Amino acid sequence: MTAILYSGGDVFDGTGDLLKDHAVLVEGDTIKDVAPAEKFSDYQGERVDTSGGTLMPGIADCHVHLVYKGEADPRSSIEGVNPGEITLRVLENAQLSLKSGITAVRDCGGREYLEFPVRDACNSGRFFGPNIMASGKMICMTGGHGNRNGRIADGCDEVIKAVREQIHAGSDLIKIMATGGVMTPRVNPEDAHYSAEEMHAGVNEARRFHKTSASHAQGAEGIMNAVKAGITSIEHGIFMDQECLDAMMERGTFLVPTLAAVQNILNNADNGIADYVVEKSRRVFEKHKESFKMFYKAGGKIAMGTDAGTPFNLHGENAMEMAYMVDCGMTPIDALKSATSVAHGLMELDDRGQVKPGFKADLLIVSGNPVDDILMAAAKKNHRMVVKNGQKVEFP
Ligand SMILES: [Zn+2]
Question: Domains in the chain and their CATH numbers?
């Protein structure tokens, strides 16, 4: 089995402080040893020089939509498009993510399960790509957020049936919509959509089949409905209040903030995005950042996610979310943990996301020290090398 020693620079292992002048020994697809570089002074095998840089775990993005490329109007960009072409876009977006240091993604809403064969091909190693978890169709109420491309279901029985359909089709997790959102016309992000009973029925059905669940939840009432139902992660969490915060802390519910989503809409407000999307983004932007700060200050579990695929929120730029979180007061080391060990924890990829013996060698080598300057890891121009399952990532 080929062994490679990465040495010369520093290591961030995904959980602790920066390890100065440490080396990492990889054998095949697995990390064998992490230790001060002098331990390997007699090592004769293949080396990768990490001098002046930091080796860290590959990044996991817990909220992407691989069927979209970040068009101004993502949904219409796939309307009437040949399913084969959509499938190729999914693969393209997945590989673009991997090239950019994103070694795992959680797809939170696709199109007619076209993302599933790409997931299987990447996870099995048939194609080079990140580890992919996928929810299948978003489950939403009649007229609710996501109703133009999700699985519409009303009432507890129908919600349960919709969950079973996703599981039967091969979903890894269930995505269920608790509130209105920014991207759907004629709905308010503030309003609860599914009732507490419907939400409980859906989440419980997912749990019966050992699936985690993620809820698009922006307004406080919808967040509470999802948290009380036992949801694994709250996506966005924009109008979180003290009651939501307390309930999430008590149950250990993850928050996946996706600050990049609203940020990129506002940065491109004049680039063809529908007026109602821009208006709602302006309405929620400050509150979103406040909720993030409140949850972070309380010590809540924040897993990095971007909502990549939404307008101008590009696959391949995912790591910038760490910089947005730091802009909102998170320390760089906590942003790095959020994007590595915490995010892999939410995805239950228990042998990835840390640079420790026994973990799979999904690695990102960056210039400089990202614990001092998050842009070293967040801006891909500072990335030097991506390693997936022990292999250097190279695309033609
Ligand atoms: Zn989303």
Answer: 3-57+353-392 (2.30.40.10), 59-318 (3.20.20.140)
